[in-house]
Amino acid sequence: MALRIVRSLPHTPISAFGVNFSFIEDEPPSEAIAIFRLPDTPIIQYEILHTEITRKLRLESSVLNLKHAFDQKTLRLEFNFHHDTPMGADQVVQQLPGSVIASKGIAHKVLKAYKFDMGDENENAN
C-alpha cells in the first residue's frame, strides 16, 4: 500500500520513510523485563505503574528507534526503522520492499536476544 501511495504522488517531497512493528507480550520472559529493574527502583516510595525505555540505535542504512514499555504485567516493544531518503520518492520505491524484510529480520533478532519465543519463523516468512 505504501508503494502505491508513493507512486501516485511522484512530485510530493519525501525526505524519510519508516517501517514500524509492535510486539505485545502478556507473559514476558524474565530476560525481557530485567532491564526495567532500574537502579532507583528500590528508593522510589510509590508504586511504579508503567516504565518506558527508549533507545536510538544506528544501523547500517537506517536508525532504529526502539521503545520498551512495561506496565508490571504486559511488555510492549515498538520498533521504528527510520530511513532518510534525500533523493525522494524514487529512492523510497527502490528501498521500501527490501527495507521491510530487513527490518523484520532485525526485529526478530532483538526479540530472540530477549528470549521471546518466535515460534516457527518459516511459518511467518511472508
Q: From N to C, what is the helix and strand string?
A: HEHEEEH
How many beta strands in the DSSP annotation? 4
Helix content: 25-40%
What does the average pLDDT come to?
Answer: 85
Please summarize the sheet with the most strands.
4 strands, antiparallel
Strand order of the largest sheet: 1-4-3-2
Number of helices: 3
Radius of gyration: 18 Å
| Low-confidence residue ranges | 122-126
Percent of sequence in beta strands:
25-35%
Shape descriptor reads elongated
Distance between the termini: 15 Å
Supply the helix-strand structural class: alpha+beta
Topology:
Blueprint: H1 2-8, E1 16-25, H2 30-33, E2 51-58, E3 63-70, E4 75-84, H3 89-113
Antiparallel strand pairs: 1-4, 2-3, 3-4
Explain how this protein is built.
- This protein has about 130 residues and is of the alpha+beta class.
- It contains three helices and four strands.
- The protein has a four-stranded antiparallel beta sheet, with helices on one face.
- Strand 2 (about 50-60) and strand 3 (about 65-70) form a beta hairpin.
- The model is unreliable at about 120-125 (pLDDT under 50).
Quick take:
It is built from three helices and four strands, in the order αβαβββα. It has 126 residues and is α+β, with helices and mostly antiparallel strands. Strands 1-4-3-2 form a four-stranded antiparallel β-sheet, covered by helices on one side.
List keywords for this structure.
126 residues, alpha+beta, 4-stranded antiparallel beta sheet, disordered C terminus
